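Bit of a strange request maybe. I'm writing a small parser for structure token strings and I need a real example to test against, not something I typed by hand. Could someone generate the tokens for this chain?
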Amino acid sequence: MKGGKEMTKVVVSNGNIDVALRKFKAKVAKSGVPSELKKRKFYKKPGVVKREQIEEARKNAHKKHR
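Reply from user aminoacidic:
Good idea to test on real output. This should exercise your parser:
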């Protein structure tokens, strides 16, 4: 979502708001907005981010080679 707004449209058919709300929540979750907000809640120094990425890569490599 860099640099712009992304619009999500959901059509309510037959007045069924529950289905439309469920579809909307699924589309928002799929777009990655909640995880992006969680990630940007606090500022992390570039060195900390890099260390976390290295540790994550190490964990994934360990899982892959089990």
